[in-house]
Design brief:
Distance between the termini: 21 Å
Number of strands: 11
Radius of gyration: 15 Å
Largest sheet: 5 strands, mixed
Shape: globular
Strand content: 35-45%
Length: 162
């Protein structure tokens, strides 16, 4: 079976909604309210450097990205570490910003990074603005994606040299 080597454009969503799709058993469309009621909420106090606005201090709350992605069941054998370690996550935001993470960064057997899909920022609900990807370990804010519209999950396909 041939699979795409890069993620397709995210499916159209309504404001505050985002789609989880790609190499998964159960693609899903979720809202901030779904994230708040379906998963344990974690809190992260972060400081990151913004290229345009300087140091940013914020408190975010939301579920761990790895727990939410477990809901859609990525197409890998969870018992096989090497298989999990080749999966990528492409996150798209409402402003056109995109970033990529590896499954290994968030996997408890590897990097165990507490990456969040925020439902609150500085004690303000994000229903209207949409969820925000929060990478607390990053020193700069480039992988903080606002108004997440889609997260594509898929295996990295290494090209074979000719």
């Amino acid at each position: 079976m041939s699979r795409p080597s890069s993620p397709p454009a995210p499916p159209v969503t309504r404001a505050g909604e985002f789609t989880l799709w790609g190499e998964v058993a159960r693609p899903a469309r979720l809202t901030v309210a779904d994230l708040r009621t379906g998963w344990e909420q974690h809190r992260a106090e972060v400081v990151f450097d913004c290229a345009t606005a300087g140091p940013q201090h914020h408190t975010f709350e939301g579920p761990l990205l790895r727990e939410v992605l477990g809901h859609v069941r990525p197409d890998f054998d969870s018992a096989r570490r090497k298989e999990r370690s080749r999966f990528l996550l492409a996150v798209s935001g409402g402003d056109g910003h995109h970033t990529v993470l590896s499954w290994a960064e968030i996997d408890a057997d590897f990097g165990n990074a507490p990456v969040l899909l925020a439902t609150r920022m500085d004690d303000t609900d994000l229903e209207a603005a949409g969820t925000q990807l929060v990478v607390p370990s990053d020193r700069c804010g480039a992988r903080y994606v606002s108004a997440v519209t889609g997260i594509w999950i898929g295996a990295c396909r290494v090209p074979v040299p000719v």
